[in-house]
Design brief:
- This protein folds into 2 domains: about 100 residues, Alpha-Beta Plaits (2-Layer Sandwich), CATH 3.30.70; about 130 residues, Alpha-Beta Plaits (2-Layer Sandwich), CATH 3.30.70.660.
- Helix content is about 20%, strand content about 30%.
- The chain has 6 helices and 10 strands; from the N terminus they run βαββαββαβαβββααβ.
- Strands 1, 2, 3, 4, 5, 6, 7, 8, 9 and 10 form a 10-stranded mixed β-sheet that branches.
- Helix 4 runs antiparallel to helix 5.
- The chain is globular and about 60 Å long.
- The chain starts with a strand and ends in a 10-residue tail after the last strand.
Amino acid sequence: MARYQVTLSYDGTEFKGYQRQGIKRTVQGCVEDSLRKLGWTATSIISAGRTDTGVHASGQVIAFDMEWNHTIEEMLSALNAYLPADISARQVCTAASDFHPRFDARAREYRYRVLVEPTRDPLKERFAWRLDQPVDHSVLERSAKAILGEHDFSAYGTPPRAGSSTIRCVTRSEWQMDGNVLRYFICGNAFLYHMVRRLVFVQVEAASGRIDINRLVEQFENGFSDHHGIAHARGLELIKVTYERDTGNSQN
């Protein structure tokens, strides 16, 4: 019996989130169904985090214990043979017997895509939040800098357990502009539920002129009850989970 660490990529559009939910189609459910066809007999895999309905991943990490008398390469090939077309196992390796994808993670990185386009673009919008009006790039850059560092993010999300800390440390907060496509990268030690999407929303509100950028910077930790909202799930992607022993599980 060995513990295996697998990096997953998936298109979250047709899933009701990552976590198994009865008969609903979820990423966890599909992966566990595929593993059972390889001889896995446990009850549940463990993961680095739970993505919401519609959220994508190129660097999700899972782990499970299994008897496997073949090579790592053969496991990767066999698992992908059974996984549905919108999930792919990108990397497999053995891990320490006590490895936990969530609790051992040192950092997580997300990417959020924004498409600025007055007319629909069905191919791009599957993975982006479309805005029909231009935004101020300089405001996005300034707002991103305000997010860096350690803050109480309680105004932007909820902790995984009631009463637990809402303080998080963000080490990367950066917008990249490529024509009409904006990409926001954020990396931190951990994230609250809905935190990234709410941070994207408030930055877009400021860049659209609906929140004064000075107010955003000065009152960042207090939040904005008059501009409460959340960016669309389809623009968000978990791209990397970093561990003490970096396995290179990013698929940028």
